[in-house]
Task: structure prediction
Amino acid sequence: MRILVTGGAGFIGSAVVRLAVARGHEVVNLDALTYAANLANVADAAQSGRYVFEHADIRDRSALDRILARHRPDWIMHLAAESHVDRSIDGPDAFVQTNVIGTFNLLEAARAHWTREGRPDSFRFHHISTDEVFGSLGATGQFTETTPYDPRSPYSASKAGSDHLVRAWAETYGLPVVLTNCSNNYGPYHFPEKLVPVVILKALAGQPIPVYGDGGNVRDWLYVEDHADALLLVVERGQAGRSYNIGGENEARNIDLVRTICAHMDELHPQGAPHARLITFVADRPGHDRRYAIDPSRIRTELGWRPSVTLEEGLRRTVDWYLANRDWWQPLLEREGVGRRLGTG
Ligand code: NAD
Ligand code: TYD
Result:
């Protein structure tokens, strides 16, 4: 298939690009190359002969029309977004512009493209979203596909808005969409402003490891390559109009996750051990969601998806990867805002 992937120079988008190319698909990577992007993430895929890059912004409708007319994709996988909660607290504007208005533009461009192609049933607009749209859980329970939306940060509100637009385009115009809502990802090529790479790189530098609040917030972690595998399964076999929750059933309190990463660092980089001595509790994030947890029963039973790695194994691979790939992450530390506390309101 020819797949247009938006945001393919980012963390998850690049994992999708790499996997799709490896599986023989043709990929058009559309990305605006914001601070979060890195074309090095797809350098190998770019050598495959099945990959094209289009430098474009989803806020630019005419660019989207041109690119869709030029490449005539069978499927669109939409991952381009502003994705960092802390940045959304400091500057919500870009989140509304890209996540809401950009998704609206892409839906309209996709609808025009699908109509020109004769409205094929096999077309898919796959919208990639987050479990954060469901809000914050107490000590028990899990998010299912029918959990009411209750976003609480500018990031999650803008993603919720985009999810609603996508559903409306399916109901009103018959656009064949699928949606996925996934829990926190981690793994190679994770931009060094998110928790897991922050912990690894602060530990490596012997600097304080910032843990927000009391460290008791719970996230449900999924290895990024398992997410990419689930996304390709959904775009290929998911039922049009349906949404699928994706998660690895790997809940962890932040403080426990941080300690586990520190233990891997102690083993793989013993200089500076014990790294847990660097853990520093800092002021909490405003509106910090307490707990996320995904019930992945639908994608498991209907599509037969299972994650391939445990959290323990995935974290170990991730620590290994950062230790071996300084050339990848070192230049990113110079980008605006990286390494600095963001989102204190
Ligand atoms: P990321 O920030 O690493 O990458 C986003 C990519 O989108 C970047 O390459 C950036 O250049 C591009 N982009 C941003 N604005 C754009 C615009 N206006 N036009 C074109 N391209 C633009 O994000 P990520 O972590 O890879 O997340 C990808 C998607 O998955 C997002 O939609 C996010 O909401 C969703 N998601 C992320 C997680 C997670 O844990 N990271 C979990 C569930 C869902
Ligand atoms: P993050 O990676 O920003 O993802 P999200 O907020 O989308 O879940 O943060 C994951 C969790 O880690 C979240 O509860 C906030 C917390 N956190 C810290 O404690 N310290 C940090 O330096 C960062 C970036 C996050």
About this structure: Residues 80 and 319 are 26 Å apart (CA to CA). The pocket of nicotinamide-adenine-dinucleotide (ligand 1) is lined by residues 6-7, 9-13, 31-34, 36-37, 57-59, 79-83, 98, 102, 128-130, 159, 182, 184-185, 191 (CB under 6 Å). The first strand starts at residue 2 and ends at 6.
